[in-house]
């Protein structure tokens, strides 16, 4: 992995989509992050909350499109692009550097179905002096993403033989292509089936 920005503060900034000063985010942060928690515990609490308590739109067959972290939290749903915005907001509210990472994956079952960009997060863990990747997409049958420090356990393992790939960059902001698709569509199911970007 490599960082888009050299300054860790770029990974702590508030953004329109990572709006951690919003009252809803602040309220959830107080609930999630007890003052006695360690850095690692805060990261795990935030990750587990977004993974388990925020539904993936496709999994629940919801047409609602969410984008901003506060909107994702309010409605408790979103696709991976939106869920990564919320996880970043919660962690940045605690001053924990959090970025955005991407994979190119087969959209459904075979290459004939096409490809899509999948979003996850990278978090800088000060206590171990390195970045770790976390995928809060949401678990279901066949998907078992976990909070791991030593050996990452993401929602998806790329299959290079099928032209899937991990993008190595840790971005300080959500990629413009992911934001554009959320802004341009009002039906999450149609967006997911037909309009997700295929590459960065």
TrEMBL record:
Transglutaminase-like domain mapped to chain residues: 32-136
InterPro entries in the record: Papain-like_cys_pep_sf (IPR038765), Transglutaminase-like (IPR002931)
Superkingdom of source: Bacteria
Signal peptide coordinates: none
Name recorded for this polypeptide: Transglutaminase family protein
